[in-house]
Specification:
The structure holds two protein chains of two kinds. Chain A is of the alpha/beta class. Chain A has one domain: 3-Layer(aba) Sandwich (Rossmann fold), CATH 3.40.50. Chain A is 27% helix and 29% strand. In chain A, a hairpin with a 2-residue loop joins strand 9 and strand 10. By secondary structure, chain B is an alpha/beta fold. Chain B has two domains: 191 residues, Rossmann fold, CATH 3.40.50; 125 residues, Rossmann fold (3-Layer(aba) Sandwich). Chain B contains nine helices and 18 strands. Chain B has a seven-stranded parallel beta sheet with strand order 7-11-6-1-4-5-12, with helices on both faces. Chain B has a five-stranded parallel beta sheet with strand order 15-14-16-17-18. A three-stranded antiparallel beta sheet of chain B has the order 8-9-10. In chain B, helix 3 crosses helix 4 and helix 6 runs parallel beside helix 9. The radius of gyration of chain B is 22 Å and the shape is elongated. Classes of the chains: A alpha/beta, B alpha/beta.
């Protein structure tokens, strides 16, 4: 038994710097210069989940992203974690894509590189956080999917038992492969890269595909393939005037109690 | 696509174990507003799916639904994204609503995304504002970058226009008993037969969480990485109990494994809260977290780093050790209460 596994990842501006994002008053565009691109945190859990399946049952892990060519650095990091091959779908024509066009592009890329038994993604990206791409990707590929996966068990070669989150608990599902699983962050703790891993990653295959390399309908990609259009953007002001309480620790507690009472919290 | 054929505002109501999620009522209220802005004569329609749910239509009517489409079948007992989206795709193609509002719950998000592909239309996720523009398009204000940026999204050439809204963002209307509404029964049995059976829901595992649900709490005591240990989490609980509130956390507490899951995580990918009082211990104030709590009436923060961004959005700040202050505060409040 061995599995051909794909993991979709996304390089995103480092979430630790989102308070540095501004809007250019002249162009009205989002300015995020100087913020480094990192692998979307939730996607590392997806990579980890794929590596664990490969280690247990054998197989191959391929990572794929739709991104500018400079995503190579992020892809090398995933290769250093243990993935076997990486693909970047990169073309100016892909630009301006909403979730529908993005998921279509990824689906066409996966069809070209695959077929895959299991496709694993994170639940959402830190930047857009729409959570849409995993489910939409599965629709284009016409395979079943589950979102918010906390636990994966193999019943046999082609059938799984999967726990997926719902409000206030989870549902246990039966799911047939090929399938897409969007794993939640509590499913595992992603491994760190090692020196050996980083060395090895340099020799692993990394391929860049453009529009011409995959079978793709130009009407479904980029701005043209995006039903949603972006309008005005703004950075809402949420700042408050902060009153700092100062004093020895036991004085602080008294001052806080005064503030709690002022906020209308009964303490007797 | 002739978009003029698509008319009416719909809400996908959500129920779990026979209880309607309050986000459904919030959406119905918004649907009524959108209908007015559209100057539409079409009824505000709620769609509800499940098993043995006929009795729930009444409450949807009480909150303002003028038409309720009931999809009731034993096969719909547990959430199954394949079957639910097969049914909804069929129903929407037949009846052509121009707007579809869905609660941004886990299953709501899942369905909204699936419908986007199956109907070839756009989905605006986690909307924080919805209105109709001069061209009669739905404008959804959606957050990005953890809520730092809010951007408007329209979907002018495709229908339905789908938008999701998180629970607790919108206000629900007054409940009015005896509201008249029309009930339409949609028989899903033929569509259910088309399901390939690639997914089957086997069992629901509910978790019984103690205390007040985060979104309903008047007081939220939140902890972050700065509380330092799993043990101190119990101190937060203790304080929350003393203040008649509940506990919440930021992402690191979940990642560190100090709590078993993310059900009380506040932020973009967690809960959005607006309590009377938010008091945060050892929370630095990442954009993602702040987005989920910035609308609290009063915000008090305790953090040892005086430059922590959380202080920028706080009314009251203390630069100090979260653990020590937490212990002092508990001790003093207990004393006050015992007097």
């Amino acid at each position: 038994m061995s599995y051909n596994i794909a993991v979709c990842i996304k390089p995103v501006p480092d979430p630790d710097f989102y308070d540095k994002i501004t809007i250019d008053p002249r162009t009205k565009r989002i300015t995020r210069s100087g913020i480094p691109a990192v692998i979307n945190p939730a996607d590392k859990n997806a990579v980890e989940a794929a590596l664990e399946i490969k280690e247990k049952y054998g197989g191959k892990v391929t990572v794929i992203t739709m991104a500018p060519p400079n995503a190579e650095e992020n892809m090398r990091e995933v290769l250093a974690m243990g993935a076997d091959a990486a693909y970047i779908l990169s073309d100016r024509e892909f630009g301006g894509a909403d979730t529908l066009a993005t998921s279509y592009t990824l689906a066409q890329g996966l069809k070209k590189i695959g077929p895959f038994d299991i496709i694993i993604t994170g639940t959402e990206s830190a930047d857009g956080a729409t959570t849409q791409v995993p489910a939409q990707l599965a629709q284009w590929l016409e395979i079943p999917h589950l979102w918010g996966v906390k636990k994966i068990e193999f019943i046999n070669e082609t059938e799984l038992k999967v726990r997926a989150k719902i409000e206030g608990g989870s549902i246990e599902y039966f799911i047939k492969l090929p399938a897409l699983l969007a794993v939640s962050r509590e499913i595992n703790r992603p491994r760190y890269t090692t020196i050996m891993g980083i060395k090895g990653a340099k020799k692993k295959p990394l391929t860049i595909y453009g529009v011409k390399d995959i079978d793709i309908d130009l009407n479904n990609i980029g701005l043209k393939g995006s039903p949603t259009q972006a309008g005005a953007v703004n950075v809402p002001s949420i700042d408050r005037k902060c009153k700092k309480l100062r004093g020895e620790p036991d004085e602080i507690a008294d001052l806080l109690i005064r503030e709690l009472t002022a906020a209308g919290i009964p303490l007797e | 696509m002739n978009i003029d054929e698509w008319k009416g505002v719909w809400v996908l109501a959500e129920q779990r174990s026979g209880r309607i999620d309050s986000v459904s009522f919030e959406l119905i209220q918004k649907a009524k507003e959108l209908k007015m802005q559209l100057k539409s004569s079409e009824p505000v329609t709620a769609v509800i799916i499940g098993n043995g749910i006929e009795k729930l239509t009444e409450e949807l009517g009480e909150y303002g639904a003028e038409e309720v489409i009931v999809i009731d079948d034993p096969a719909l007992e547990m959430f199954n994204n394949e079957i639910y989206s097969l049914i909804l795709t069929d129903l929407i193609k037949k009846r052509k609503p121009e707007i579809l509002l869905i609660g941004a719950t886990i299953s709501g998000q899942d369905i909204a995304s699936m419908l986007g592909v199956r109907l070839g239309t756009g989905v605006a996720t986690h909307s924080v504002g919805l209105h109709i523009d001069e061209d009669n398009n739905l404008v959804s204000a959606v957050p990005a970058f953890g809520g730092k940026v809010i951007g408007d999204i329209i979907c002018p050439k495709h229908r339905p226009q789908i938008a999701t809204v998180k629970p607790g963002i919108l206000e629900k209307g007054q409940k009015m008993q005896g509201n008249k509404f029309k009930t339409i029964r949609y028989d899903p049995s033929d569509i259910i037969k088309k399901d390939k059976g690639c997914i089957k829901a086997l069992a629901v595992h509910k978790k019984e969480y103690k205390g007040i649900p985060l979104q309903e709490a008047k007081v939220v005591v939140a902890g972050g990485f700065g509380i330092g240990s799993k043990g101190n989490w119990n101190l937060l609980r203790k304080l929350a109990q003393l203040l008649g509130g509940t506990v919440g956390c930021s992402r690191p507490v979940v990642d560190e494994g100090w709590i078993p899951d993310d059900h009380c995580m506040i932020g973009t990918s967690g809960k959005t809260i607006r309590p009377k009082l938010y008091i945060g211990f050892g929370i630095s104030g990442s954009t993602h977290h702040v987005c989920g709590m910035k609308d609290s009436d009063v915000i008090i923060s305790i953090n040892k780093d005086e430059n922590a961004p959380i202080f920028n959005v706080s009314d009251v700040g203390v630069v100090g050790d979260a653990e020590i202050i937490l212990k002092d505060l508990i001790e003093k409040i207990e004393k006050l209460k015992s007097m």
